[in-house]
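Lab notebook, bench 4. Still working through the backlog of constructs that have no structural model yet. Next entry is a single chain of 81 residues. Request: give me the structure tokens for it.
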Amino acid sequence: MSKIRFVGLDVHADTIAVAVAEPDGEVRALGIIPNRLESIRKLVTKLGPAKQLKACYEAGPTGYVLYARTPGRINTARDTG
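Model written out:
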């Protein structure tokens, strides 16, 4: 069984809503964190090793800032549609 956790991030200027899909298929909302570098680092640390995380967020001004703040921390896929 894969150990990859899929993380959905709804990025706003001041906050990020976070949800995770577990390897067993369970999907749950984790809540809302401040859109601050320290909060993002804590989230990634809490969720596990970076190579076991895949995150998705909307491509746009706030998503780009998130991407720029987290190079190499998590595998990312941006929604460009």
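Notes after review: The chain is about 25% helix and 40% strand. Strands lie at 5-11, 15-21, 27-34, 53-58, 75-79. Flag for follow-up if needed.
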